[in-house]
Amino acid sequence: MLVKRLISTFVPSLGFSCYSAPNTLKTGAILKQARTFSNEDVLKYSKLSYDSNPLHFDAECARNAGFKGVLVPGMLVASLFPRIIASHFPGAVYVSQTLQFKLPVYIGEEIISEVQATNIREMKNKYIAKFSTKCSQNDGLVVLDGEATAILPTLAM
């Protein structure tokens, strides 16, 4: 709870929610988070990742490529999945992620990210959790989906 409160203080657009039995991760549990990416977010990501694709900075270039505006890098959108897991399970180790990019995400567009526990097994006092992952627009259109696996120190949230 303290970690969620601290993160919410420093990152204003988190909007955490959890749909499961309170305080314990179970198969079927869904953890959600809303996020709107800004030009500044994309600029910071670009500096860190050295991604200089003009589709992320130049509106004319993006329109010429068939998009309606500047795009948020897909990997920046995908970064919402480990963020959700780590915010609910401090000390979690992200093991794998598959991704399918379905639709573009534009700067200023609210995206709802979601992870749903599909399988949980105990192994040596830790838990291997598999999640289905997806990001959607407000109207429910899926922009990104896949699967993730993480090692959790506990199932307590």
Automatic annotation (TrEMBL):
PROSITE patterns in alphabetical order: PROKAR_LIPOPROTEIN
GO molecular function: hydro-lyase activity
SUPFAM superfamilies: Thioesterase/thiol ester dehydrase-isomerase
Membrane-spanning residues: none
InterPro entries: HotDog_dom_sf, MaoC-like_dom, UPF0336/Enoyl-CoA_hydratase
Start and end residues of each MaoC-like domain: 26-126
Record's protein name: MaoC-like domain-containing protein
Source organism: Ilex paraguariensis (yerba mate)
Lineage, broadest ranks: Eukaryota, Viridiplantae, Streptophyta, Embryophyta, Tracheophyta
